[in-house]
Amino acid sequence: MEAAGISIISASAIADVAASPSRRSRNMSLKMGRNQAAGNKIHAEEQTVKEKPNWIKQLLKDEASWSQTLVAGLAEFLGTAILIFVGCMGCVGSLTDIPNALQTALTFGFAVTCVIQIIGHISVAHINPAVTVSAVILGHKSLPAAAVYILAQLSGAVVGYGMLKAITPTELLHNGDDTSASSFCVTLIHTKISVIQGLIVETVTTGVLILLCCASWDPRNARNSDSTPIKFGLTVTTLSLSGGPYTGCSMNPARTFGPALWNNAWNSHWVYWLGPMAGSILATLAYKTLFWPRKPADKDIPEAAALNSVATEKQEVN
């Protein structure tokens, strides 16, 4: 039939065969395009996974070198020693009139002010394990650095109280009452207050202190740092005046640990660890969840500046 000029293959079939190379090429291109798109999607997902921060690594990673961390730890040791030495010295009542609650609160408050001014630019002057825990939650400190800080704070508290014992005769180391010699400067829960109530007092007062820490670390408050020592000193004084009659208002496990170790006074000592730590964690999480800025503060926006910051046009030009 083909010899007679008749073909058994239809014209449409011949057209399909003729067009098949271009069609195959087009199909191949579409397939390659789909594969490439799928590959890009997988690569993007892998990249996203890689970019997601590993919270464990974040806790262990420290931008500061070990030498810088050790220097900061030394500053924490010195600062906590000064706090306990000066603060407890103000409680001695055997050499002069018996100190009242206001004198004791002001002594510790002003001691905090001095310490922040001395070492604040070196270690941020935590001088308190509860403050260090807050810094870890906010991502300001790694776990290794926090361990160095807390160890330095506890050691400083022990040394600071030991220095006070070294310069004060044993029979005079009390608050004006001879019976207090065995528990001088030791934080104790009032006999009319239950342990649970004392725990709540330590939790709440420490929480207020930690809220001040979070506010001072808030990027929107960056312009408002000159008066930080005064603010912390007055806050500690205020909280000591209010919570002191209940528990001694430690708000600081290191402050309680030093005198307790020297006097072997461990009655309800756990309250002064659990309370401040719980207050620190709760207050930090609350501030971070409710108030911490989701994006960096814009310094050009007036609302982003601190309320009592000063920014004159002359300073802007300079």
Could you characterize what this model shows?
- It is a single chain.
- The chain has 318 residues and is mostly helical.
- The chain has a single domain (55-294), classed as Glycerol uptake facilitator protein (Up-down Bundle), CATH 1.20.1080.
- Helices cover 65% and strands 0% of the residues.
- It has eleven helices and no strands.
- The chain has helices spanning 11-51, 55-60, 66-89, 101-123, 129-137, 143-167, 195-217, 228-247, 253-263, 271-290, 313-317.
- α5 crosses α7 and α7 packs across α10.
- The N and C termini lie far apart (100 Å).
In short:
With 318 residues, this protein is mainly alpha-helical.
Unreliable stretches covering 5 or more consecutive residues: 1-9, 48-52, 299-318
DSSP strand content:
under 5%
Strand count:
0
| Oligomeric state of this protein | single chain
Helix content, binned percent: 55-70%
In CATH, the topology is named Glycerol uptake facilitator protein
Query: Class by helix and strand content?
Result: mainly alpha
Whole-number mean pLDDT: 82
Radius of gyration: 33 Å
Q: Regarding CATH, which class?
A: Mainly Alpha
Q: Main β-sheet, in a few words?
A: none
Number of helices: 11
**Cα shape:** globular
The number of domains:
1
Task: Give the helices and strands, then pairings.
Elements (H helix, E strand, L loop, with lengths): L10 H41 L3 H6 L5 H24 L11 H23 L5 H9 L5 H25 L27 H23 L10 H20 L5 H11 L7 H20 L22 H5 L1
Helix pairs in contact: 3-4, 3-6, 4-8, 5-6, 5-7, 5-10, 6-9, 7-8, 7-10
